[in-house]
Amino acid sequence: METSNLTVTSPNFTSRSLVSANNGFCLKSPPVLRQQRRKITVVKASVAAVDKKVALIRIGTRGSPLALAQAYETRDKLRASSSELAEEGAIEIVVIKTTGDKILSQPLADIGGKGLFTKEIDEALLNSEIDIAVHSMKDVPTYLPEKTILPCNLPREDVRDAFISLNATSLADLPAGSIVGTASLRRKSQLLHRYPSLSVLENFRGNVQTRLKKLNDGVVEATLLALAGLKRLNMTEHVSSILPIDDMLPAVAQGAIGIACRSDDDKMANYIAKLNHEETRLAVACERAFLLTLDGSCRTPIAGYACRDEDGNCLFRGLVASPDGTKVLETSRKGLYAYEDMILMGKDAGEELLSRAGPGFFDS
């Protein structure tokens, strides 16, 4: 196996390896959102008004338990931000089934990539069937649809991945030949790089509950899930252990929620601007600049994470890998925690790894 790790220096920022979570790596855990019973409206191709009272804001979301938890978190923050939105019926949750939710038998890359979890919601937004859209930021393509903006990120949850198994407490405890279920090439490549004796069941798709059921049914010996989702669902009791950042660099924008609206809708833009967490927005922008430079897709193992260090600077760490995990390239950056500097860091890190990877790197 080949591992390469390079650090560089530029006029605007310096490069260095980052410390792990146990040594002060930047991680924050906002309060867990607990689920409650709530009434929702479900739509597929189009959105039909069912409430007699016209809502001031219609929130578009996917229908998975995690997506709904994120929509409810957004709703609760909107209610707290404005007295008119706190009134009964002022906010409506509109569930939209996306292509990615309907087709579970194929890998995402084979049916069109990450945009499959946002396309139908974006269309509803552009058609004025909803007023704002709530997305998991790691599902959002690097290019937004025309006439839409995404100016708001809620405070980020824990970015790390969780290891879940009925028989082992960590990846290191799994016997050789054990099968780990994950649909993520990022997780697969990093897992196989560190534990080549393990096997990966690909296309291990479905919502959190579906994947945990497959684990309980013995389809796999273990799985890896985003800790952020488990926290938002109040399901952390299933976690066997949490993977350190050094062992499993997270996906770009993992743990971040984004809220989009139409670019000409100043009223909605003002509503959601009150919810924006600027530290999260800048970190996500840095990571997405890295992803955009690499032209990343669901076929490409890419990881990236930006955070603020104890001195208030931005620390960024990026990784690309061959799908089989035999080759991993990493780099890191340090610079001012400011938008332009962080965009430059992300782009520069991406350009470096593109150059080092060379043609055919992702075909392994």
**What's the end-to-end separation, in Å?**
13 Å
Q: Largest sheet, if any?
A: 6 strands, mixed
Uncertain spans, ≥5 residues at pLDDT below 50?
Answer: 1-25, 27-51
Q: Would you tell me the overall average pLDDT?
A: 86
Helix content: 25-40%
The tally of beta strands, per DSSP, is: 16
Strand residues, percent? 15-25%
Structural class: alpha/beta
Write the H/E string, N to C.
EEEEHEHHEEEEHEHEHEEHHEEEH
- Helix count, per DSSP? 9
Shape: globular
Write the layout of secondary structure elements.
Layout (H helix, E strand, L loop, with lengths): L1 E4 L7 E2 L26 E3 L13 E5 L3 H17 L9 E6 L2 H4 L16 H8 L5 E5 L11 E6 L7 E5 L13 E3 L3 H10 L4 E3 L6 H9 L5 E5 H6 L8 E2 L14 E6 L3 H8 L4 H17 L7 E7 L5 E8 L5 E9 L3 H19 L7
Parallel strand pairs: 1-16, 3-5, 4-5, 4-6, 9-10, 9-11
Antiparallel strand pairs: 2-16, 6-13, 7-13, 8-11, 8-12, 14-15, 15-16
Summarize this structure as a short list of keywords or feature phrases.
364 residues, alpha/beta, 6-stranded mixed beta sheet, 5-stranded mixed beta sheet, 9 helices, 16 strands, 27% helix, disordered N terminus
Report on this structure.
With 364 residues, the chain is an alpha/beta fold. The chain is built from nine helices and 16 strands. Strand 15 and strand 16 form a beta hairpin. Helix 8 runs parallel beside helix 9. The protein starts with a strand and ends in a 7-residue tail after the last helix. The N terminus is likely disordered.
